[in-house]
Amino acid sequence: MSLIRPHVLTLILLGLLISSVNAQEDVSKLAAAWKASTDAETAGQYDQAITKLREFENLGGDAYLVALRNGWLAYAKKDYVNAAKFYRAASNMQPQSINALLGRMNTALAVGDYKESRTVADSILRIDPAQYSALSTVASAFYAEKNYGQALTYYRRINDYYPEDTTGLSGTAWSLLLNGDARTAAAEFKKLLSISPTFAYAQQGYEQATGKKLSR
Question: What CA–CA distances, in Å, run from 88 to 62, 100, 102?
């Protein structure tokens, strides 16, 4: 068996050392660029945050993270066209990413594209059936369409996963009432009022459901 000559071994080790040093320098530059971007965002300097993110990208930063953050920064600037573009790119790279899909959903909501927001919300729920924002978006969409039966289905899911959530309790109570089940609605309004006595329109809902004033 032939042995590696000492001078050859030295060159190999030197090469590995140089590679290691270069890798550490690259990581440090990436981390610095990312931090500079987040610091600029915190200061409300979104254009500067985007510039620093571009440095991160040019240094070889992860493409998905770049797309996701570009989407967020565009959304923060109310540049919804670019936000949608970047979030879709992030979603294409990582189809199971909840954050990328939430970005798409929220951008669609921001521009009033409720059909798209519900489509994306359904995609989220196929991945994570308990995702609160997606459940709320679908429930609200059905409620706005006066499809109270379907709205109730999703509000009940919010109740199951987040029993203490007052918005979910309110949605359930109103969906029941407007779907013709006043008796069950009254019980739900009473439950809501027991933990949030001043919740918007809860007392009104209870009084509509029972036909009498709520005793306090």
Answer: 16, 7, 10
